[in-house]
Amino acid sequence: MSIKTELTSWLQALGDLVYPKPPVCTLCNKSIYQAYFLEYSVENSANPKTQDDANARTEDNASARAYSHRRHQRLTSKEKRYLGKTRIELADHLCSLCYQGLKLITAPFCHKCGRTMTNIKLDGRSKGTDDPQVCQDCIQPSVQHRAFKYARAAAEYNDAIQELIHQYKYRGQRNLVEPLQIIMCNVFELHFKKQPFRIETLIPVPLHENRLAERGFNQALQISKHISNKHKIPIADILERTEYTEKQSKKSKVERTASLEHAFKVKNHNSAEQRHAGMVKAKSVLLIDDIYTTGTTVDACAGVLKEAGAKEVYVLTLAR
Domain spanning 96-319 has what CATH number? Predict the structure, then answer.
């Protein structure tokens, strides 16, 4: 190596030390600081051409501030800590523009499936039902006797969370697992920490062996690991998908139910898996998946776990 090359490398290292490169958003690949200033410039650009435009903008801003204030007042102190903690921990992973696209779920939500509810009356009951805060889907007779106790989710299923999950699952963006794990761990702490019951085992929803070979990993297992490591809760990968089905997102609710009726079972091939089965009997377990759409998949898994002796089955997903 020549003296000039060595000197250049030393100067570059010194420059990186004095002026470190800003973190890059793992989703949009923009500098996190650049995205912040872009957001600021968008909010404060486009001077109004007329007084009417100025008045309209003032009214819009006032309305947005009033809505934000009402929403903030509605949050519990626990939810405020959850949102603040999540934003801070994601600061080095997602820029403010990408983060704002995530609609993290806070109350009011359906107490059965975890869906955001916008039609809650002042008395805390949803329209069309006498049950407190239960959505229209969960009062249908066909879902009255589901095998899981209740489900919770981190975010509403929208374009932002869909892009985040798809980039990770289908486009090889393995570095997105860390922000997904952070979101999952924080929503776990919001809903399942300091409860009358204690989650004793984490169980990821399995992939069929063909899809696992195609993808190379099970996303439900990967997003479970941070919860397991932080809260010292064992993961029991004991479920097996016996039938290779098409992607459930392309099917109707009736088709999903029919295709998943006998799609899962408990593994029993070796002593290690039998030991894992012992981690389910008479225990409260948490079933983990990435997306809850109709609840058919997690309900089928929960039914198998109940047959295997689980005391209670709860569900946690990234998106609902």
Answer: 3.40.50.2020
